[in-house]
Amino acid sequence: MKHTLTPRRWLVLICVMLTASVGDTLLGIGMKSAGPVSVHHLGALLHALANPTVILGIILLLGFMAGNLTALSWADLTFVLPATSFGYVVVAILARFWLHENISVSRWCGIALIIGGVGFVANGPSRTEHSQEHISTAGPI
Which of 23, 26, 31, 101 could form a disulfide with 60 if both were Cys (CB 3.0 to 4.6 A apart)? Predict the structure, then answer.
């Protein structure tokens, strides 16, 4: 049986992708303003964690984690991860137009490969079916 995704499940995947992309971008903005930190200097790290942009990025990444857990409850990891990897495209677009970063041609080519890969994964089933015999003999992991 091929598992197809409902519009609600596609919305969860889109939210996972967007919260990760925007959350990571906000962390990038916040950390550029906070300056270099190190685990050997926890004071600087704690100061960076007080940055409102970093806090907002962390909140969005917590939303990403909740959505990711939701998606993994009804789809295989090998489906969810590639399906949400379109977020790399979103990050590149945000970095280019919001952070004004230069993106090389080779990076754009890599992003195009990601888009192609997402297309292959999205056309496949979201969940692997296992026979009852396979499940009962597999034992604990």
Answer: 23
131: its two tokens: 């026979």
Q: Return the number of other C-beta atoms located less than 10 Å from residue 28's C-beta.
A: 19
Give the Å distances, CA to CA, from 38 to 42, 80, 128: 7, 32, 42
Q: What is the pTM of this model?
A: 0.79
Q: What is the distance, to the nearest Å, from the Cα of residue 5 to the centroid of all Cα atoms in its chain?
A: 18
Could you report the per-residue pLDDT of 12-27, keeping only the tens digit for each?
999 999 999 999 999 9
pLDDT per residue as tens digits for the range 92-132: 999 999 999 999 999 999 988 888 887 777 666 677 775 55
